[in-house]
Amino acid sequence: MSTERHFIEVSGIQVEVVRKSIKNLHLGVYPPEGRVRVATPLSMDDEAVRLAVVSRLGWIRRKQQEFREQARQSEREMVTGETHYVWGQRYRLEVIEQWWRQHVELGPGKKLRLCIHPGADRERRLRVLNRWYREELRKRIPKLIRKWEPKLGVKVSDWRVKRMRTRWGTCNPEAGRIWINLELAKKPPQCLEYIVVHEMAHLIERTHNYRFQRTLDQAMPRWKIYRELLQREPLAHEEWIY
């Protein structure tokens, strides 16, 4: 797909303009600072983009204010007593140093137990925790795909989990592949299901146009509620998520 990218300024707001081989303009505002991005057809000039942004200025400024006010965790030090999230629930981290198997488990009293080799630094502890988050997602994603394939009438040929700084998920319609953000293991289960369905819907329509939204409306009538729930969830220190 042909793509070109540059920036313009509209009413004091820097706008990223991405021209693609698409039919309709799509305007988005993204956390954490309210970055504005416009995806537009190759034939649309900057003046038309400016007019589109000006017509949505009120909405853009409201979204930017919401993102500035959104709760954000401080950087995790991976020490006992810290708060960590699992499926939308708060847990207190309990670091247990031991020489045998390194693993993570949920304990009574909302404890998240990290069993780690003595002397392991923050990065090592974080890798073990993220490996556990990944396995949690791998337990749930296949069931969700099997549930929604017949509902949407699509087939997912491959799915993967990775950390992404700017997206909750991505889809490659040609390959039938979807990617899911590792951070979703920290969010309520409805958020994961919404993102899985969202990316699967891109196997029907690659853009966020009327057809795409109609597909979500018909398959998952409460999808906007789940999207709002995801947007209200605390962001990790380093997250840049739309």
Account of the protein in words:
It is built from 6 helices and 11 strands. The strands form 3 sheets. It has a 4-stranded mixed beta sheet with strand order 1-2-4-3. A 4-stranded mixed beta sheet has the order 5-6-8-7, with helices on one face. It has a 3-stranded mixed beta sheet with strand order 9-11-10, with helices on one face. The chain is 36% helix and 27% strand. The chain has 2 domains: 3-69, no CATH class; 83-232, Zincin-like (2-Layer Sandwich). It has 242 residues and is α/β, with parallel strands linked by helices. It has helices spanning 46-55, 57-69, 122-152, 189-201, 210-219, 223-232, and strands spanning 3-10, 13-20, 26-30, 35-41, 83-86, 89-97, 103-107, 111-116, 158-162, 169-172, 177-181. α3 packs across α4 and α4 (189-201) packs across α6 (223-232).
Layout of strands and helices, then pairs:
Layout lengths: L2 E8 L2 E8 L5 E5 L4 E7 L4 H10 L1 H13 L13 E4 L2 E9 L5 E5 L3 E6 L5 H31 L5 E5 L6 E4 L4 E5 L7 H13 L8 H10 L3 H10 L10
Helix pairs in contact: 3-4, 4-6
Q: Can you give me a brief rundown of this structure?
A:
About 35% of the residues lie in helices and about 25% in strands. The chain is an alpha/beta fold and about 240 residues long.
Mean pLDDT: 89
Quaternary assembly: single chain
Reported CATH architecture of the largest domain: 2-Layer Sandwich
Fourth-tier CATH superfamily name of the largest domain: Metalloproteases ("zincins"), catalytic domain
Name the features.
alpha/beta; 11 strands; 4-stranded mixed beta sheet; 6 helices; Zincin-like
